[in-house]
Amino acid sequence: xxxxxxxIQIDLFCLDCGYNLRGLTGNQCPECGHDIAYIRxxxxxxxxxxRREIGWFLAFWKTVYFVLLSKRRLWEELCRPVDxxxxxxxxxxTLVWIEGMILLLASVWAWIDPQGLLAQCWKMEPHLTVIxxxxxxxxxxxxxxxxxxxPRSFSRYCRSHETPAELxxxxxxxxxxxxAPLAWLPVVGWLTFVIVWTFPADRLLVSxxxxxxxxxxxxxxxxxxxxxxxxWGIDLTLLARHALQLTPGDLWAFRIGxxxxxxxxxxxIFFLIPLVLLYFTIIYLSLTG
Length: 289
Hints:
By secondary structure, the chain is mainly alpha-helical. 69% of the residues lie in helices and 0% in strands.
């Protein structure tokens, strides 16, 4: 036996064919011949798991970049054991970060721009403004809590394809990390705030250009948000492809499935928000009128 290739003592799986490599001494999968030298490191490379050594803040953003910078990095972690409790903590921190930054952004915007829409709503109807904003925050929180869970289709495909339980567990755990790009959503909001506040249209541009400027900002925000969500979806698809060994037809069904789940969740939650606001508005007007 070559000393540089010790026997693999734990369950590691080939990312091309899903073959269990336990007991293997070489650097090629005996099932498909794929090079497996990169899986010799059994310790996970996800920075979040080292947060106690490098600090939570640095570990959080290193993990975000870990997922964003390379499509291959995340699904290569299928080869190594991962801790689901670490992933759940990362998910909670991400949600707190998103909600906290949205709340802070709205507060700063209302304070700096007293003539803006949010500030004017606060002056006219403070109670309804608070109720509406909290309802929006709770709606966003409900959406992200629901969609950042491991997709149910993972469990269904694992059973139907007889995927090893450990490999399925790793795929479901890594699907939580796949939502890391969402950490950039507040950054998009702050970027919009800085651009609008630093370069106000009424100072720099004549009136005829203001709609063009506003439309450009809307398209920029929409592009950045779509890029964030598309990267999330791509990572989920790659995890499903390499962990579950799906056929092209199953892979398309998986893509369509989680996209429909996202849209259905968003529609259900954000359809309720106007209803709740309408309900409280009617009560408020009846009490004050």
